[in-house]
Amino acid sequence: MSDWFRVYDEDEGLRRYFEVDGEDWAVRQVEVREADAVPMTAASLEEVLSLRDHGDLGAMSRYERRYGVLAEGRLDGWREQPHAREISAREFDRLWADARRTLALRT
């Protein structure tokens, strides 16, 4: 079962949006710079695992330059941060689609 939430990272000026599985591991992640609403990350665990299993270091490097790096480890405790809040699957999917469109243009 998936769950969706966002947190605000004041130190980095980023809004971080997560889709997590039942064990609080990131399945998909979007990061948006607060100052100008520019997406910085839109990474997927499924894509990362596929690249790890079937790609090479060059392919993984290109993916990370384009779509960013997926959070590693469990995200339990993140929801207790002061600026955290639950979001809907629909809201996450809209943000995901927008971020992927923008980041797909990166070279």
Structure characterization notes:
With 107 residues, the chain is α+β, with helices and mostly antiparallel strands. The protein has one domain (3-104). The chain contains 3 helices and 5 strands; from the N terminus they run ββββααβα. It has helices at residues 45-54, 57-67, 89-104, and strands at residues 3-9, 14-20, 26-33, 39-44, 85-86. A hairpin with a 4-residue loop joins β1 and β2 (14-20). It is globular and about 40 Å long. The N and C termini lie far apart (34 Å). The mean pLDDT is 93.
- Tally of structural domains: 1
Structural class, by secondary structure, is alpha+beta
Task: Give start-end ranges of low-pLDDT stretches.
Answer: none
Q: How much is the average pLDDT? A: 93
Q: In total, how many beta strands?
A: 5
What kind of oligomer do you see? single chain
Distance between the termini: 34 Å
Using only C-alpha atoms, the radius of gyration works out to 14 Å
Please indicate the percent range of residues in DSSP E strands (runs of 2 or more). 25-35%
Helix/strand order: EEEEHHEH
Number of helices: 3
The largest sheet is: 5 strands, antiparallel
Instruction: Classify the helix fraction into a percent range.
Output: 25-40%
